[in-house]
């Protein structure tokens, strides 16, 4: 420690005013250098904590590798030249650091052996099945639901540098998202709104995997498995609904048929010739069937006249029978009166036997015709 400095008396007021007018900043060595922290990957650029150059070690290794390649050129050519397909991209790292320029491909690219490494990324759409998830719906029904997810890599560099295994991470996220989305739905909504549920899952997964360089293109609900007892109850309910609908349809059909028959009867009653045409149509249909027995329907006018004449004759016969019976009764009464007068005129004490009355059978045998 430097002890050469001695305490000095405090300055006077004049000195204080002179010193306060001039402010001297502290020397730069008085503060330690600011620490740099890495808060994330700076893909495609330089690390803020790195120096302007890659370092002497990197330069030396690069020059040495180039010399080795030049010395063994015919043999090292196969190690330097790499090819990626149209649907692939190569992310190159040089001494562990991401090489500037982004992913390479498709086609031919060069690497320096021993100091360059690369990873291939497939840009084609990949599909995977989400394992069946036991989910408790909003109305407390346990269902097993599985789905299928389609995704692709939209940024190969981010997919390699920001996540260790983008495929496995996407599968786990799809399973948890499926449980979270279906847990807020009723059973009826899960069964009837599969398309809307798929859209909600697709948007949620796409937003979550955007920072991984993954693009979720499509999500589909494959199967919804219900408990056996619930399936039986739903089947019974559906069958009862179908039977009720069939009965309603049959009743409506009978009602329309009755109305049609009523209208046809009214038309036939107003137009007698329509009934004759109907007779002819019936005869034509019977003749077309080649039956051995042909039934000719009798016109209603003839039947009506026959029924009327028969009814009139029955009424006349009934009236005649009543008239004859009345005359017979009068004749019998007159004869009884004459016999009584004769007996009285002779003065016989024994009364003459009256004329026997008609038996009840004769009265009961008279037919009653309404």
UniProtKB/TrEMBL annotation:
Q: Tell me the keywords, alphabetical order.
A: Membrane, Transmembrane, Transmembrane helix
Q: What is this protein called?
A: Band 7 protein AGAP004871-like
The transmembrane residues are 60-84
InterPro entries tied to this protein: Band-7_stomatin-like, Band_7, Band_7/SPFH_dom_sf, Band_7/stomatin-like_CS, Stomatin_HflK_fam
List where Basic and acidic residues composition bias occurs: 338-349
- Give a GO cellular-component term: plasma membrane
Q: Band domain: which residues?
A: 79-238
């Amino acid at each position: 420690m430097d002890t050469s400095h001695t305490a000095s008396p405090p300055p006077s007021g004049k000195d204080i005013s002179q010193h306060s007018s001039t402010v001297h900043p502290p020397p730069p060595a008085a503060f330690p250098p600011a620490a740099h922290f890495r808060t994330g990957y700076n893909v495609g650029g330089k690390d803020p904590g790195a120096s302007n150059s890659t370092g002497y070690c990197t330069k030396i290794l690069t020059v040495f590798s180039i010399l080795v390649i030049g010395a063994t050129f015919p043999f090292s050519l196969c190690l330097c030249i790499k090819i990626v397909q149209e649907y692939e991209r190569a992310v190159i790292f040089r001494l562990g650091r991401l090489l500037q320029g982004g992913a390479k491909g498709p086609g031919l690219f060069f690497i320096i052996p021993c100091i360059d490494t690369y990873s291939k990324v497939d840009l084609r759409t990949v599909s995977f099945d989400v394992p069946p998830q036991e989910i408790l719906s909003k109305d407390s029904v346990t269902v097993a639901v599985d789905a299928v997810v389609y995704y692709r890599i939209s940024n190969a560099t981010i997919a390699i540098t920001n996540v260790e295994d983008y495929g496995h991470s996407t599968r786990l996220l799809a399973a948890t998202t499926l449980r979270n989305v279906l847990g807020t739905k009723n059973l009826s909504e899960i069964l009837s709104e599969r398309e809307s549920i798929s859209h909600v899952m697709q948007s949620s997964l796409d937003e979550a995997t955007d920072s991984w360089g993954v693009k979720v293109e499509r999500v589909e609900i494959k199967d919804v498995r219900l408990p056996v007892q619930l399936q039986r109850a739903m089947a019974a309910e559906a069958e009862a609904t179908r039977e009720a609908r069939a009965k309603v349809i049959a009743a409506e059909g009978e009602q329309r048929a009755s109305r049609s028959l009523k209208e046809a009867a009214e038309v036939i009653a107003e137009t007698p010739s329509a009934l004759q045409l109907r007779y002819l149509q019936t005869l034509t249909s019977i003749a077309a069937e080649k039956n051995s027995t042909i039934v000719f329907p009798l016109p209603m006018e003839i039947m009506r006249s026959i029924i009327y004449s028969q009814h009139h004759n029955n009424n006349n016969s009934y009236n005649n029978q009543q008239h004859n019976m009345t005359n017979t009764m009068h004749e019998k009464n007159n004869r009884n009166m004459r016999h009584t007068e004769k007996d009285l005129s002779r003065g016989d004490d024994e009364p003459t036997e009256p004329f026997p009355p008609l038996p009840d059978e004769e009265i009961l045998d008279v037919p009653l015709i309404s």
